[in-house]
Amino acid sequence: MPTIEANGETLHYVKSGAGPAVVFVHYLGGFSRQWQRQIAALEDRFTCIAFDQRGYGFSSLNGRWSVEASAEDLKAGLDALGIEAAHFVAYSMAGPVMLSFNARWSGMVRSLMLIDTFARNDRGAVARVAETEKCLRYMSMREYARQYTAARLLPETPQRLVDEVVASICLARKEAYLDTMRGILGPDFSALCPLVTAPTLVLCGRLDVTTPVDQASDLTRLIPKAREAIIEAAHLGIWENPEAFDRIVVDFLDAQEAAASTTPSAR
Length: 267
Fold this sequence. Notes:
Layout: E1 3-6, E2 9-17, E3 21-25, H1 36-42, E4 47-51, H2 67-80, E5 86-91, H3 94-105, E6 109-115, H4 125-138, H5 141-152, H6 159-170, H7 174-184, E7 200-205, H8 213-222, E8 226-231, H9 237-240, H10 242-262
Helix pairs in contact: 2-3, 4-7, 5-6
């Protein structure tokens, strides 16, 4: 896997395909591999890029994870790859990251997908962070990942996909995981939503209790060009309902390019 040096970190990434750029930004405990199906479906007509955020996957953790640092890492990585504008697909913790990124570099955002994420998620935030800190004080990341998947994934999720999520969480550094929770739970990113002027799709699982549908609907209401889609899934629809998830992602990105082809200046 290739790497880029950015902001004191070594960021691993995947880049595949040719055409307009699509940038995938992973969820808490994820890394670039989570997007392999979507990349396979799109790489014949898009340049697909996915970074491991600092502290996740195979990227380094020399500094601390924060929303601002992650947005700056993403900008530095795209600059290094010569990407001036892209479609962005952001999952869960990546929602606040992309709202921060857009507030500073909106000209780079051609369209935006916000998946199972939020502008504000402060319900029980202090307790959630404290409970995770307690768990990670005594558990390995593998033990924590097993506990997490048992509680969060739908029971009918195939075991091979459960194992994929567990393996991904195991690569996360505890410090980055906890810094992420502290950085996204509690703060209110609502003021950044009206700054998103690109076409936006907000996607949420109907059974999601981590970022419930009403939080997705807040994003849809606050972002001027947003619309909403709901699928039968909990928080990890990418694994729980892959067919519906992939169809919505692919259809949205294809629709953006179809629209852009009639308005060349939009590129």
